Amino acid sequence: MPESKMYSGMKTILITGAGSGFGKLLTEQLSARSAYNIIASVRSIGDLGHGVEAHLAGLPNVSLAELDVTSDEQVDSITSRILEQYQSIDILVNNAGVFGGGLLEAHSIAQVQKLFNTNVYAPLRLMKAVLPAMRKQQEGLIINLSSMLGFFSIPLNAVYCASKFALEALVTGSYAELIQQGVENILVEPGSFPTELYQKAGIKADLPEVTRAYNGMAEQMAEYANNAVYQAIQEKKPDPRAVVGKIIQLIDMEKGTRPLRNPVDQISGEVFARKVADDLSALAQQQMKAYGF
Questions:
Q1: Residue 68 class from Cβ within 10 Å (0-12 exposed, 13-18 middle, 19+ buried)?
Q2: Would you call 160 a catalytic residue per the annotation?
Q3: d(CA 287, CA 172)
Q4: CATH no. for residue 227?
Q5: I want to staple 115 with a disulfide (CB 3.0 to 4.6 A). Which of 48, 55, 203, 217 is the partner?
Q6: Number of folded domains that form the chain
Q7: DSSP code of 34?
Q8: Is residue 67 part of a domain?
Q9: Is the pLDDT of residue 74 over 90?
Q10: Is 5 inside any structural domain?
């Protein structure tokens, strides 16, 4: 981690995946408020391009750092260095993630594991790294970027959806455990937004011979889905800043008032997205009550 821009009396925020998309926008907007020590982590500073690197490194209150979220050693190292320099990690934003697509059968197990390592094990790895310090100070906020596809699964995205289902389960299941320790572990669930996550497409099915055996079905479904999403984005024009605004709103809220689930979907509509989240929470509470919890 480069020389820190440490300012006393300010809370410290670690943001993963800060080189693009929601993470970059969040870093920029939080920096403009001059209220936080921000550690903006990226997988490789060299891959950012000089313009992006210089921009992020030059932001007030921002320290740019390399972090491979799939590495135990790197996660342990960066959290130790942050705690040494800043004395606390008050907020963790688990934003790093990869998209994936393709027929379920056309994914090798190794490919599924690769996607889960970034979308599931990485946020869990970071949670475990920051929680001891947060529990000790009885204070902390962890915001996990999930997806509306953590609510339901769709064709050609079963593996990606499964990774978001898993993240949702980790966070919702641990919420009651951690809130008693002074730590809020919550979710932000974006719908479709025009960010680099989808443009880069991430981890795709890697068994083309299996895809070919479906006689063009996968290609037809993908074309239909891509056209539908493209048309919806063109019509609704969802703004990624809405997701960043939700994250900042959650950061600003009083401890104990933050909702566990926070959907942001400008295509299906906020009312629908909120109802889905509330219905899921109500069903979970009803099920737990039935078993005497």
A1: middle
A2: yes
A3: 14
A4: 3.40.50.720
A5: 203
A6: 1
A7: T
A8: yes
A9: yes
A10: no
Quick one: tokens of 281?
Answer: 């929470």
pLDDT digits (tens, 9 = 90+) for 164-215: 999 999 999 999 999 999 999 999 999 888 765 555 546 789 999 999 999 9
Distance CA 21, CA 168 (A): 21
Residue 254 phi/psi, 5-degree rounding, is -65, 145
Domain residue limits at 265:
11-290
Distance, CA of 258 to chain centre = 17
Per the listing, tokens 């709103």 go with 249
Helix (H) or strand (E) holding 256: none
Query: Do 53 and 65 contact (CB within 8 A), yes or no?
Result: no
Paired tokens of 110: 């190794």
Residue 113's CB is within 10 A of a number of other CB atoms, namely 12
Which tokens go with 95? 């934003």
State CA 134 to chain mean position distance: 19
What are the helix and strand counts (H, E) for the chain?
Answer: 11, 9
Is the residue at 270 inside a domain?
Answer: yes
* Domain contains 114: yes
The pTM assigned to this predicted structure is 0.92
